Amino acid sequence: MSETGGYMRFFPYEQPYENQREAMDRIYNALARDQNALFEGACGTGKTLSSLVPALEIARERDKTVVITTNVHQQMRQFVAEARAITREEDVRAVVFKGKGSMCHIDVGYEECQALRDNTRAVVDAERDREQLERRQRELLAESQEGSGDGSAADARSAVMDELESIEERLEDLEDQNVCDYYRNNLTGDTDDFFAWLFDDVRTPEQIYEYADRNGFCGYELLKEGIEGVDLVVCNYHHLLDSTIREQFFRWLGREPEDVIAVFDEAHNVEDAAREHATRTCSERTFDSALDELADSDDPRSEDAANVLSAFHRALIETYEDSFAFGERERIGENWADVPIANEDRRDDLTLEFLRRYSGRGIEDDLEAAMKLGQELDEEYEEAYREGETATRTECQTLQAAAFVSAWMNEGTKEGLYPVVSVTRDAGTDEVYGRAELYTCLPRQVTGRLFEEVSATILMSATLQPFDVTEDVLGLEDPITMAYGLQFPEERRRTYAVETPPLFSSDRDDPAVQEQVTDAIHDAVRMTPGNTLAFFPNYGEASRYAERLEGRYGKTVYADEPGVAVEDLRQEFVADDDAVLCTSLWGTLAEGVSFDGDDARTVLVVGVPYPHLDDRAEAVQEAYDAAFDGTDTGWRYAVEIPTVRKTRQALGRVIRSPEDIGVRALLDRRYSRDAKSDLGKYSVNGTFPHEEREGLIDIDPSKLKFSMLNFYGDHDAYDGEPPTP
């Protein structure tokens, strides 16, 4: 591979970093062998270009398409910027693809959109046929009037007129049907200018929407039409992780799966995203609607269908009602709350209640009747919408409910699936209602198939290690692995493991522990020349320490709250120059958000932020134990490693460029090297990658303020006199 003919022609800047060039070489060689790659790189590694540049070269050599995907909005913007830089160096056709829901001009659901497209195309096709027939009959009329004598032109015109009459009747019928004017303009208008504009740069979905809306087109349908055979697509996770969407997406690309190179950014999130896409749910209200639907049907199968669905419906209600202890029902809020139903030695409580309540000729037979009737009703609803008999496209609730109950009974005992019942309260009616859910514990059941289908995959993140765990969890077979730590000058950063008391959940309410932790936070914030980010195990702890910090010094204390849009708070915080922001490590600020330069100088992670260990978390642990044959595997794979990854992500919010200086501090003895000897399995120091462990400096809480004072003082970071220790 020569310098001029190799992948470096796609690199949009003068020279890559040394490690970046090495990463590109390794990724190119892996892709050339159709091999997957796990690529961990800290901020400044240039992960996006290190992956895209060799992927685009392989794609060009072998006629493939590169699909790069993320679930973080800021990264989507970064991808667009990098793609634009590449397209200015090389002839690359790149598009940014977003789902119909965010690009539809008339805000209809998927099924309605499908019917509108079909209706509109039928109308346009009929009008084109009429236009052709009218032109033909005029030609034949002219021929017959010339008096050729044999009458063939007149006979042919008579046949054309008959056909034209049939088309007119068809158009009269179609006039009453629902159509989409935007899509009609796609089919009848001149869209050449749109596609010239689209590929003149890398356009965002928002730009496409605005252009299409201004010109009366459907931008989503034009984008689907335009992505066939492109070199690069930027999209969201669900275009690859949802098998149904993936199949359609590849069809729009005009590619077989083996012709696609998939690049996942923030790949430490793929595990949870895969679970979300695989999990199936059905609400009590869906069953209510299905039973109403069946009551209105005079089809003889409706009785059998109602028999089986009503039994499951009643069982669902009975199951969650029986689970409530005294006063619990009144405490149900608007967020979904799980009701434990799983049993170790028998089927789950919902299934047992369903079997007890059901009486009929057979569950399978009744479900088959419900499915077939549901399919026919769904076709009727679509036809009614097409014909303009209804203003919206009705979804068949019987079909949805029957499909879910079939999956519950046939798949509910499979490895890696966990049955759940959840309840919530309707804010409007104050009604408590429930839903059933088949929760997917093993994400490799989703991702493993994807990795087998596509040509190759690159998974990149700042926190993918330990690689063997990522391989197991996602179902990767023998990928190449590479890890590059922070490339910025070591002398401009410090990372401390502060030996404050371990914040075990049982010790968090201890006043003495709270005082020691508050003193350490206070020292760190006071010695920081600028803003401090402080992450806690949950929002409750963040609020607790925000209150304890209030009034202890002149700095402003900001407290993040759950369920509140955080961007305004972030903007207010970074506009300040002497503040502390307290938030949860499980909130939206812990990853995908940069605090560059003066935005934040110090980041603190207070405690080991283990997630809430509910029944789902226990089920995931048990599934991992069973799948990977180890009693401690579940805890390590499902809890400890994801928690430390979260911690590492939070530490990466500061020191975002070679010019930045900053301190990163972990406040909990469990992070220290010395803790391994006396805390044993409760120590998390060994869960960090080796190079990060080497950079951790164990420090007594009383010495933290002096160390920070010296560090920031050495870099002349204080504006005026430094604070007094």
Layout of helices and strands:
Blueprint: H1 18-32, E1 37-41, H2 47-62, E2 65-70, H3 73-87, E3 94-96, H4 110-145, H5 152-175, H6 181-188, H7 192-198, H8 205-215, H9 219-226, E4 232-236, H10 238-241, H11 243-253, E5 260-264, H12 270-278, E6 280-283, H13 284-295, H14 301-323, E7 337-339, H15 349-357, H16 363-386, H17 397-411, E8 417-425, E9 432-440, H18 444-453, E10 456-461, H19 467-474, E11 480-484, E12 493-498, H20 511-526, E13 532-536, H21 539-549, E14 556-559, H22 567-575, E15 579-584, E16 602-606, H23 615-628, H24 633-651, E17 662-667, H25 675-679, H26 690-695, E18 696-699, H27 701-714
Parallel strand pairs: 1-10, 1-11, 2-4, 2-5, 3-4, 5-10, 12-17, 12-18, 13-15, 13-16, 14-15, 16-17
Antiparallel strand pairs: 6-9, 7-8, 8-9
Short description:
Helices cover 50% and strands 13% of the residues. By secondary structure, the protein is an alpha/beta fold.
- Structural shape: globular
The biggest sheet, with number of strands, parallel, antiparallel or mixed sense and barrel status, is: 7 strands, parallel
- Strand numbers in spatial order across the main sheet: 3-4-2-5-10-1-11
Based on secondary structure, the structural category is alpha/beta
Strand content: 5-15%
Q: Report how far apart the termini are.
A: 59 Å
For the secondary structure, the number of strands is 18
Which spans of ≥5 residues are poorly predicted at pLDDT below 50?
Answer: 1-5
Portion in helices: 40-55%
Count every helix, treating DSSP H or I runs of 4 or more residues as helices.
27
